[in-house]
Amino acid sequence: MQRRLRQWIASLPRLPIRLVLIGLFVLQIFSATGLSGYLCYVYKQQQTAVATERTLQIVSDRLQQAMDRYLAEAQQIALGLAPAVELNLLDGDSRPQYLQQQQHLLPPGSAIALLETGSPGELDASLAGFAAPTLPPHLDGPTLQPASQGVVALLPIRASTQTVAVFVPWSGLRSALEAIA
Q1: What does 75-118 look like in DSSP terms, one character per residue?
Q2: So what's the pLDDT on residue 132?
């Protein structure tokens, strides 16, 4: 084994020491430059990921706040209407007028309806043709359900089979979201 090694070394051309040192120096410079470039790249990638995550969180929070503000009026109307119906404060004649007054507080294109909780009918029949999922047979509390063209805020009325449904269209949400951009 040592003999082969000596033969291999002997077969190599004799290089001047100056050329060997220059080659090692160049190799060291390229290695150091490459390593520092790689470390900078990895660090910047990590910083970019952190900044992107922060930005997404801020935008997500702003969108959530805008949606909450946009849907708050519908939820407040549903919360205010439920006790009035439950206590029979709205008779058959005053109910449509009251619903129409409340509807003016909502964004354009919104609709309010009182639905039978157990009815197999769909919400779109009561909410001016806006398709929505079938009304659940039992609601525990206030619920927001997505519809094809908006959101429906549902609030069951205690001691009654009725549910207050307030439809809010997506088109108004778009302008609310553009306001925060």
Answers
A1: HHHHHHHHHHHHTT-S-TTHHHHHHHHHHTTSPTT-EEEEEETT
A2: 46
Torsion 169-147-115-76 (CA) sign? negative
What is 114-168 written as a DSSP string? EEETT--SBHHHHTTT---PBPPS---S-EEEE-SSEEEEEEEPTTSSEEEEEEE
136 Cβ partners below 8 Å, 6+ apart?
143, 154
Contact 115, 123 (CB under 8 A): yes
> Residue 139, Cα to own-chain centre: how many angstroms?
25
pLDDT digits (tens, 9 = 90+) for 49-98: 999 999 999 988 888 887 777 777 777 777 777 777 777 777 666 777 77
- CA separation for the pair 122, 129 (Å, rounded): 10
Tokens of 175: 């302008």
For the whole model, what pTM was predicted? Answer: 0.51
Handedness of CA 103, 60, 178, 171 (dihedral sign): negative
All residue ranges of the chain with pLDDT < 70 are 91-93, 115-143, 157-161, 172-181
Q: Which residue has the tokens 């290695």?
A: 31
